[in-house]
Design a protein that fits this description.
By secondary structure, this protein is of the alpha/beta class. The protein has 26 helices and 10 strands. Bound molecules: zinc ion.
Length: 566
């Protein structure tokens, strides 16, 4: 039904003259100059995304060439003569519109070649508008090329495409090329205002801005959204209505999400998800929007990427500004992870938990990346060699001048540095195990966030899940995930080979959630400070790797903990 109304509105407000075409002044001006100087090329190539005026401009060109109100081609077709009217209605026999997607065979093009020889019946020119021309077969292109090489003087071809790179160079070289642009937000808003005025409907400025942004520079999309809104709203169209009708989250939400990730604002991220859920948005769609958003950042980050975005300038600036704050590797990882997240959702709850876990992970991504980089370097240094074949491992005596927050003790030259895990050391090593498993399987990693490492019993790790996280537990228990986690345990620990899970009953005392204490042999600072320091995955990993202990805590730019609190 919406589709039907949309057609009505789009047809109703379709531009009838070059002056009415929105946001393509560079094209209409050139076409007008060509018409008034009588230098009309026989083949035009109109390039640009869908719904930004290529076919509309082609029809206006056809009217300009064939309008009966003037003795020759005119830049101001009357719009009322038989030719102008039948061209607008798509019934003029001299203006032939062909959909390249469904008429792409060599026979279709041969038919054009035969038809083109005949002189126009009521106009001066026969105008062939071939939409989606890139869909023609190779044989059809070859047939078309012959016509373009020796066109009869009364023939004008307008080839329109969204994908110019799929059009053979031999065809392109025969055409005058016109690149249609995404329409700036301001121009779309201006157009919407004109339509609203004629339709006698009111809309807030914010709503118009939102429609224009959602249309991403496409006039037809903007008109279609406005049409739906006119049906949806009884009174004035408000900002919120736009996102209700589209079922979308505002771009503003995506910018906010991105900022929260950059600022490692976990609470902000969870509130944002809460908000999206509370507003009844579909989470799979939301994830896809996030994916598209980060994909935009990624494209922006790469050379010449901005040409591919087709974003209005205002939006481009917002995206560029944020893209600069991420590393390229970081963005690639995020896009990969969100892409992975879009597959394999089976319930709204699963979507939500997985999304929250991933958001937390990526907001910590900077730390995680540097952990890997630093560890790799340290291990290499420790091995006493540069990159390449591993050098013979030498035990290194402690160097007093290197004393820092973490004191490296002389360690055994064992190659895989496996640790003996006990219930007491479990909390300290859990982040490393989680990360290891998460790197092997993102899916496992996100669900493990819900698990609490409770104890080591013999060669088994006991993982507890809160009563509300039964699903997380089931997923972790899946055979493939069980294998991955057990492999991580085998690689990191010397003594733990398997794990079992427990669901904490609802009536369980809150004490079950209390974090493990950090044993005294690992630290000479207070439990509280040590626990805080161990929450930093870098610290936890370095302590793990070098069998270190925390002797002092220095915050960047702040005095040591010992100096602060005597
Ligand atoms: Zn006319």
């Amino acid at each position: 039904m919406a589709e039907k109304r949309y057609l009505v509105l789009a047809r109703k407000w379709r531009p009838q003259s070059f002056d009415d075409v929105v946001g393509q002044d560079h094209i209409t001006r050139t076409l007008c100059n060509a018409i008034s100087s009588g230098r009309i090329h026989h083949a035009f190539l109109f390039i640009g995304s869908r719904g930004i005026g290529k076919t509309t401009t082609a029809r206006i060109l056809a009217k300009a060439l064939n309008c009966l109100s003037s003795s020759g081609p005119t830049v101001t077709p009357c719009g009322t003569c038989d030719n102008c009217r039948s061209i607008s209605e798509g019934t003029n026999i001299d203006v032939i519109e062909i959909d390249g997607a469904s008429n792409n065979s060599v026979d279709d093009v041969r038919e054009i070649r035969e038809n083109v020889r005949m002189v126009p019946s009521s106009g001066r020119y026969k105008v062939y508008i071939i939409d989606e021309v890139h869909q023609l077969s190779i044989a059809a292109f070859n047939a078309l090329l012959k016509t373009l090489e020796e066109p009869p003087p009364h023939a004008v071809f307008v080839l329109a495409t969204t994908e110019a790179h799929k059009v053979p160079a031999t065809i392109i070289s025969r055409c005058q090329r016109y690149d249609f642009r995404r329409v700036p937000i301001a121009s779309i808003i201006e157009l919407l205002r004109k339509i609203l005025e004629k339709e006698q409907v009111k809309a807030s400025d914010e709503a118009l801005h939102a429609i224009a942004r959602a249309a991403e520079g496409g006039v037809r999309d903007a008109e279609s959204i406005l049409d739906q809104l006119i049906s949806y709203c009884s009174g004035e169209i408000a900002f919120k209505d736009v996102f209700d009708v589209l079922g979308l989250v505002d771009w503003h939400v995506l910018h906010t999400l991105c900022d929260a990730v950059l600022n490692k604002d976990v609470a902000g991220l969870l509130l944002l998800v809460e908000d999206v859920v509370a507003n009844g948005k579909d989470l799979s769609q939301f994830v896809q929007e996030i994916l598209r958003y980060y994909r935009n950042l990624l494209v922006c980050k790469t050379a010449n990427g901005t040409d591919l975005l087709h974003l209005p300038e205002e939006e481009l600036l917002e995206v560029q500004q944020r893209a600069q704050r991420f590393t390229l590797t970081g963005l690639i990882r995020m896009v990969e992870q969100f892409a992975e997240l879009t597959s394999g959702f089976d319930s709204q709850l699963a979507q939500r938990i997985a999304l929250e876990a991933l958001l937390i992970r990526i907001s910590k991504a900077g730390v995680e990346l540097s952990v890997d980089a630093v560890l790799e370097k340290l291990l290499l240094l420790e091995a006493g060699g540069a990159a390449g074949a591993p050098a013979p491992v030498q035990p290194r005596p402690p160097d007093p001048s290197q004393a820092g927050p973490v004191e490296a003790a002389p360690t055994a030259p064992a190659k895989p540095r496996r640790i003996t895990l006990t219930t007491d050391t479990l909390a300290a090593h859990w982040p490393a195990i989680q990360q290891h498993a998460g790197r092997a399987s993102l899916n496992l990693g996100v669900w493990l966030v819900k698990a609490e490492p409770a104890a080591i019993e013999g060669d088994a790790l006991v993982l507890r899940f809160p009563s509300g996280a039964a699903q997380a537990r089931n997923i972790v228990e899946k055979p493939e995930n069980r294998g991955t986690l057990e492999e991580a345990l085998a690689q990191i620990t010397a003594n733990v080979r398997r794990f079992r899970t427990e669901l904490i009953p609802e009536t369980a005392p809150a004490a079950a959630n209390t974090p493990q204490g950090i044993p005294a042999f690992m630290t000479t600072v207070s439990q509280e400070d040590a626990r805080e320091a161990m929450q930093d995955p870098l610290v936890a990993k370095v302590i793990d790797a070098f069998k270190g202990r925390i002797v002092d805590i220095k915050h960047p730019g702040a005095p040591a903990a010992g100096e602060r609190s005597p």
